[in-house]
Write a structure and sequence with these properties.
heterotetramer, A: alpha/beta, Rossmann fold, 7-stranded mixed β-sheet, 9 helices, B: 385 residues, Dna Ligase, domain 1, 6-stranded antiparallel β-sheet, 4-stranded antiparallel β-sheet, 18 strands, elongated
């Protein structure tokens, strides 16, 4: 078991013929991910990566030919919104958008369309997701993972790697790791991922890495109160000044909204063990699991 | 990207949102002739990236061209303190506008709302006042209405927002088209905030945008060709402006002493937090991004060191796409090109961390295994310095 | 029983304070329709029709105050699209739009939105619908109806009255009569109404009046093949020339599409008894019901 | 509302769909100077509301101004037969355009589709040919793609439509923006058909609208202020044009002898059908609409009688909102104002039918109880006449 993806998930890659597309698709394949095709308009009929991956002109064709249910989008920001819409229209269930720098208005539009179609969007501006030993959709480095009972969800890429690495070094393996992305408007939020971990029999505890900006952590805290599984939290940006965007478009304290302290307080009130440093995460997980 | 009021009003005009007759002026002569052309009492407004300009003394009424010229002589080139921006800003331009015969004032804004994942239309019938103050004192005078991104601002949505704020029912029919035009301007310019405070209803029943605050989505500038020239970083921190020019994600932090360079926004923020926990004060946020090459690492080091408050630099890299050896080479390049006088601690983990560490052995940089160790080391070295 | 509306259906009227609104709302009330409110922006708080009907500024307020689930729209064409969208957004289940002359593009937009919200639109450019002895939403003259087992559905107003009148004179009463409207883009088509009659225990036979233009009759014919209840059909416009709009925006033969003969043929192939004149309808109904 | 090619191209230009350099001309001199200005081989196209203009002799090439002037002299004011419109139409204006160096031609149209309840984009790679002929001969060269009305024509939808029709893959990137601009023009002008046949890809790779057929939604004319003056009924049937001016829903039918007036489109069509069944031939479709007043009834009678083929008139009114007495009064007014020489049969049913019948008793009009009886009576009377 796992959440969202496993070794039988058929994946296509939109924007596969770009540098990032080829590079990461190769890594995804090497990890065992079932990448069944790529989309690159005008290059349909070709094959890439030593002939392992057939290219299609449209997502619709790719889906029809391969039965793909998931897509990973690497196309540049100005074309990314169209790629998400195309995937949703073609009936793809899981749309993972790695692309950073998409205009907010486009995000508002496609997030709505994806929801109406009943599909799920992860990202944009995210590292993707990985189910240990089974499938990797996106750019998460796979060599830091070992199998185990911990689910990981995070707004940040490298901070996730840091946390996962700490877990692995402490012998705490993972089920699935979901990078939900750093933009203010993302398709999948903490509140959407936590119920999946709660329902997954293999996941015994969840590590959730938040950061300044917005109120997704506070919303998640309300749900955590109802969870049976322990959640270990971390919030980045205790020293972030208000009014300044900290790299991520979503990481900004606006007035009284989005402060790290409010998030820490909300999580603690929900019974979450909040680490002060990523290095404390493994210890808190062990404590929560009685190890 | 922040716009000046006069720039925002150019957008409003393009989308047929009524604005007062007026012109922007950079010299006393231009102010005089603009006033003469308007031919009635004018208001002179200093163009700075801040609200609260009245309180700062940057907004003045003038009945005649001579009076306007005298005010312009006083204001142009003057630096004033703006409490809202918490900064001294220089007035380089004045917007000269007809003074409106105000009957009612309301507040209107459209902005992106994270909670509803929608654009929202905010209406307050207490125009001219700060919206946060109104929210505390008379929340019933404010309505917040989500806008369907696929339908845009429909008539009924605009109307219902006005009803919900308790707006005068007799004015609704003539205000709705102005709100729709404002929404078109907001979407058409890829704004993330369009605030009209006040929206003025004049004695003769016209609905006119009195002031305008406007923020453009930087991610959309590629398709806003006409607006690209509106960018003006002269009021920004000079190091931030330089970093921006070089395409580096850098935020300067007040009162810091340790320069921070890392990859990934969350990791860099966490590194800042660790430095604080170790007793230091982060001097900046700098994210070299994913897959950074040696040149951008060198560039980043130069930016961070250009802040004289920086007493030490901490590199914290967790390699994924970013490779430890590439970063190490960038640091070597930087050390060769720059005259570095402060200690540098480098923590490399993940992809090619060992190769990176080997490269750095030839230098006098201080290696660290973990983020926490790195933070403690740089603080100790920087304080000793 | 009946379909779509009955005496417990709470109805509001949008555009109630116009001439048509007041006139027809009065008739609707007199028939016993549960008209619980009206909407006229800016006139909220007033009452009309001898104080019987309270006015609201918005559909949302009206729905909240009255619990209405249906609306009847009388607003002029240039404001009608907005009225439909407002009703759908407020969560009204049944939206009956009488207004004629709405731009086609607006119709395409609101038909989609109504569908997404899970609501039902009848019309536009329709006379509305009437459940005999219970409720009348729209402008159908009620005095031609008597209760009985016949369901009626029609693209045309007066032709419906003609047909109903003929049924009534022959002693054949009706359950519900639905005027679906004469525009090319309408919210409820034959294919949407027929299953409701098929499922309604009180309806024993259906009279369906089509006309030239489009292919809704042909689509309906496919469904009729699966129905257990007899359908009696009539198609207006056997003498209509191609390429000319016959009053209704939807009543036009375009090339080989929308010809009356194709419709008659499709209906006959589906076992429908097709009348050559409305005067034949009662006889065919009696034959079908074995009366 | 039908537009002429030159009017459609004004819309295209406004929405940045590339069109050939050109100008519309009404005189030989204008044609000469337009040709000189273009400065290369031009094509002269007669502006009529019909396709198939080449076959009708209304499209000519000219290499020089003199040649163009000679052709214009011949064509302007000339009446030609257009098979597609099945009508003789007079050429009052010529569109003078640069002749394109054609490499490829495709067919593009956007229109409202009843089956999908969507706008659809139709692409045929057999440009310049009639789309119905292509549909029969090579259906694989045509794609029909529904457009989401809330998203509009997205890049991927346009692209996929071109792929589906087998379009040259190397031309897709430059054709997609033209399709999107065409869609913007279609929506922006409230069109119900926008057909570009051919869309030309020139030798130097430009994508240009060679021809344009355009229909505007009459229901949307109220908000298409700029397009209202584009209406030209000079080619219409004169009685239909007059009815249209008076706001009456009237269609003239060829070869008819019985004038039909009724209320409601379905009922009027059915009345036509009944007249045919009774052995007559309907001369028109006239719907007086719901709640018609006496004046519009009189007006309608006048329109119907202005057709010299009409040997008798049948009124068929089923009163709902429309009142029988009001209609009867209108007929009385009409009889008084007009010199009526043909028999009239009146069938009134529904609201106030009895009152109407009473009013008409004073006249020599023939009453009827049912539609069928009315049809039989008017046919008998008109034939006897």
């Amino acid at each position: 078991m796992s959440i969202l993806i496993d070794k039988s998930t058929k994946v296509i890659v939109q924007g596969i013929t770009g540098n990032a597309g080829i590079f990461h698709t190769t890594l995804m394949l090497d990890y065992g991910t079932l990448v069944v095709g790529g989309v690159s308009p005008g290059k349909g009929g070709q094959k890439v990566i030593d002939g392992r991956v057939p290219i299609f002109d449209t997502v619709e064709e790719a889906k029809k030919a391969t039965g793909a249910t998931a897509t990973c989008i690497f196309v540049p920001a100005r074309f990314a919104a169209d790629a998400v819409l195309e995937a949703a229209d073609a009936g793809i269930d899981l749309i993972v958008c790695i692309t950073e720098g998409i205009p907010g208005h486009d995000e508002l539009v496609f997030a709505n369309v994806v929801r109406q179609k009943g599909a799920r969007l992860v990202g944009p501006n995210c590292p993707g997701l990985l189910t240990v030993g089974q499938a990797n959709i996106g750019i998460i480095p796979d060599n830091i993972f070992i199998p185990g009972p911990i689910g990981v969800v995070s707004r940040s890429g490298t901070l996730t790697y840091e946390s996962v690495d700490a877990l692995t070094r402490a012998g705490l393996g993972q089920t699935t790791c979901v990078g939900i992305g750093g933009d203010p408007f993302i398709g999948t939020r903490f509140i959407d991922v936590l119920p999946l971990f709660e329902a997954d029999p293999e996941t015994k505890a969840v590590v959730m890495c938040g950061e300044v900006g917005g109120s997704d952590e506070e919303i998640a805290a309300e749900y955590i109160k109802t969870m049976t599984k322990p959640v270990i939290g971390f919030i980045a940006g205790l020293t972030a000044p208000p009014g300044k965007r900290m790299g991520h478009a979503g990481a900004i304290i606006s007035g009284t909204s989005g402060t790290p302290q409010a998030k820490v307080d909300a999580l603690k009130a929900a019974g979450v063990a909040v680490a002060e440093s990523p290095s404390q995460i493994p210890g808190l997980v062990k404590l929560a699991l009685g190890l | 990207m922040k716009l000046y009021e006069y720039q925002a009003k150019e957008i409003l005009k393009k989308y047929k949102v009524p604005v007062p007759a007026g012109a922007v002026a950079e010299t006393v002569d231009e102010v005089r002739s603009a006033t003469a052309k308007i031919g009635k009492t004018v208001v002179l407004k200093g163009q700075v990236h801040s609200g609260g300009r009245g309180k700062a003394g940057a907004v003045k009424l003038a009945k005649t061209s001579d009076e306007a010229a005298a005010i312009a002589h006083d204001l142009l080139g003057k630096t004033l303190f703006f409490a809202q921006a918490n900064a001294n800003l220089k007035v380089n331009k004045l917007l000269v506008e007809e003074a409106l015969a105000i009957k009612h004032e309301i507040y209107i804004a459209i902005t992106q709302d994270r909670t509803t994942q929608r654009d929202i239309l905010i209406v307050s019938t207490k125009g001219g006042m700060d919206i946060e103050a109104v929210a505390e004192e008379s929340p019933e005078a404010i309505s917040k209405t989500p806008i369907d991104p696929l339908l845009g601002l429909t008539d009924y949505t605009a109307r219902n927002a006005l009803f919900a704020a308790g707006y005068d029912k007799t004015l609704i029919a003539k205000t709705v088209p102005v709100l729709k035009a404002l929404y078109a301007a907001y979407i058409g310019s890829d704004a993330i905030l369009a605030e009209i405070n006040p929206l003025v209803i004049t004695d003769d029943g016209a609905v006119i945008a009195g002031d305008a605050k406007w923020l453009i989505d930087d991610n959309a500038l590629y398709r806003q060709i006409d607006l690209q020239s509106f960018g003006d970083s002269s009021e920004d921190d000079p190091i931030e402006a330089e970093a921006h020019r070089r395409g580096i994600q850098y935020v300067r932090l007040e009162g810091g002493n340790i320069g921070i360079i890392g990859n990934g926004a969350g990791l860099v923020m966490t590194t800042m937090d660790e430095v604080k926990r170790a007793g230091g004060a982060p001097a900046d946020f700098l994210d070299i991004g994913g897959g950074a090459k040696a040149e951008s690492v060198r560039n980043s080091l130069e930016i961070v060191l250009s802040d004289p408050n920086v007493k030490g630099v901490l590199f914290n890299i967790f390699g994924g796409i970013t490779r430890g050896d590439e970063v190490a080479n960038g640091i070597i390049e930087g050390l060769a090109a720059l005259d570095v006088k402060v200690p540098i601690v480098v923590r490399l983990a993940g992809t090619r961390a060992a190769e990176g560490a080997a490269i750095l052995k030839q230098t006098n940089l201080v290696p660290a295994e973990t983020m926490q160790e790195a933070a403690e080391k740089i603080v100790a070295l920087a304080l000793k310095n």
